[in-house]
Amino acid sequence: MLHLVWHQTFSTKPFPRAGGNRVANQSIEVMLKLLQDVQRILKHHAAEFLERQGVPLTTVVILRHLGDSPGITVTELGRRCGLSKGYVSVLLDQMEVDGWIHKFPDPDDQRRKRLRLSEAGRSFRSRLERMHLEFLQERLQALPPSQLDTIIAGLQHLRDAFGDSFHQNNT
User: Model-level pTM?
Assistant: First the structure.
């Protein structure tokens, strides 16, 4: 799977197939291309939305992880965000000044800090999520409900085909 992701991200050549149904393989390639396009478009719209709000994407990523994993360490937060511990620490210091997070000592190791959102941080995260959902709903309202149901069912099947190991390893 990692090879496929690496290939789709960094290669311009078609992914090599080991036989099988040529039509099915072409459909899979079209699906992967569409998923990449949709991901790129959504990321672009999210970046534009956040820019208008004056909020860096990294701040939102950190807010999401802290909200989903109260008590997480700086090191683990950096790993989940794909950012260095030093960079995350700088961002967290500013978020603490802004009143969005609380740092507290790890009961098992006083040198290590644990993190959680403050009430202001939870409120800010909730407000951003609500505004972003409204933003997306405006763009998706043109889809007929039956088409949206079909898309949702297809995405659920795709997620189920790969299992839930990614979600479990990244929460």
Answer: 0.68
